Amino acid sequence: MSNLVNKIILYLERTPDFKEEVKLQDDGDGVVYIKEWNATDKPKPTDEQLNALESQADDIETANQVISNRKSEYPTIEECVHAILDDDLENLQILRQAVKEKYPKWQN
Questions:
Q1: How many helices (H) and strands (E) does the chain have?
Q2: pLDDT grade, residue 94 (50/70/90)?
Q3: Which of 6, 31, 41, 42 could form a disulfide with 57 if both were Cys (CB 3.0 to 4.6 A apart)?
Q4: Is residue 55 a contact partner of residue 7, using CB atoms and an 8 Å limit?
Q5: Residue 107 lies in a domain
Q6: CATH code at 38?
């Protein structure tokens, strides 16, 4: 579903309200589709228009996954505060750098 969401965002060149403007549905078969299109700035895209955005949507998904992975493995705020208070910034930076190297920023 996230790939279709990203394609729609790319198509509209903005993030729509997915509760009112663009409603997506999955009937339980794993196929997500546009159930309702109420965006007024552009007509509902064709499958061909959405498919043309596949590569860009994949790049966004990859970048979002890198961000998610980094967030889950970075030291917590509590750990950062303790490092500051305990004058242990060097070790904190070593931990952060290890996460950055494990999950380098995505560049397409």
A1: 5, 2
A2: very high
A3: 6
A4: no
A5: no
A6: 3.30.56
